[in-house]
Structure of TIGR03013 family PEP-CTERM/XrtA system glycosyltransferase:
Amino acid sequence: MLRISNHYVSKIVFGLLFVELLVLMGSAYAGAAVRHLGAGEVFTPGHLHHFFTSAIAFTTAVVFSMSAMGMYQLNFSDGGSRKSIFLQLMPSFVMGFFILTLLFYLAPDLAFGRSILLMVFAIAAIGIFIARIVFLKTSELIQSRIMFVGNGPLAKECSDLALSTTRYHHYKIAGFVPNDSEEVCVPAASLLKVREGESLAKLARKHGVEEIVVSVQNRRTKFPIKELLDCKLQGVKVTDAATFFERETCQIRVDSLQPSWLVFGGGFDQSFVRTFMKRSFDLVCSSIIMVMTFPVMLLAALAVWLEDRGPVFYSQERVGKDGKTFRVLKFRSMRADAEKPGKPQWAAQNDPRVTRIGGFMRKTRIDELPQIVNVFKGEMSFVGPRPERPYFVEQLIEVVPYYNVRHSIKPGITGWAQVRYGYGSSAEDALQKLQYDLYYVKNNSLFLDVLILIDTLKVVLFRSGR
């Protein structure tokens, strides 16, 4: 895995993106060359400069569309089948075509000719299709040998994660170094036999191990810290379970977390530069979204009022940065008497209190748009943990470890948990969302904010998430 602005990015995804950038740029030139040669024309330096700028615009539009369609959230469970690649590729290219058409309308100097554009898209589609099949099939052959220190529940959970077919990284488990203080939760056949006097480093070399994951729940007894240091000095990567989970799931697992890991680990950037960039990003994004969606908001307001003649907007108290409360503004998506008994209730998927218009707005996130006002007021960010009601926060703090950490930054209209997890209607769901929120709080950056916005577009297009 690579780390870009503290965010973990799969080497496979990064490599695939690099290959596809080359394919798309090459397709732009190939399409133009075929068209010009067919017309008996010759490329001049002026042609080359023009096509370079146009090729950049084409490549950017298609990569953005593929990202918005989730084509870089790889799933290896289908083995990179031709059918799944085709079903993702076609909508992505249709979306890219519309984006590029709009871009060429706004900047006609960038435009290809119509015949060239169709030729470029045809060559690019074939090139991306072939590149994906070859790349994904080849990536399955690349495996890292990994060894776990421990044999308890934590080691079992780590190994299950390593063997998951949906993971971006392929692992071959060499085995588990037994720990007498733990219950054996892994297959007995996978326990490594450690001979008397045999060091951990020698055992790692013997099995060709590239990485050791320390998955011992209790480190107070018989913890081989000196041997692990020796392994690291000899070039074997040593990783603790919390970092392994963070890297592989983009979550921070609170059930196996040592408080010292949060204190002494990296991340949690709250510097002036980050705060300034974050605020600037919020204002720019909010302004653009408000201008682009203003007609939609007018129609939404009219639809809400026409359905039951009730209030258009819904204001509710939420907990923000540093635990301070504020009133969030949304389009009303439930009946006016949704909480008539007076006791707050979790919002659930297919909630009977949701109106017909409200159900559509929730799926498309239109009901969230008035929160742009909260962003302008400085109460929220565009990207961040979703703000929760004080009633639920008091309950969750009691049962969910580290829940208050999410209040160290401003809440957001959309967030890492919203694009990765979806609906939540219980304390268990809140725990899962918190683990994504903690990852964002620890690793938040402008790069991660942009990725979340792209994923949000995918959620809106496919009407998934919360």
Observations:
- The chain has 16 helices and ten strands.
- The radius of gyration is 26 Å.
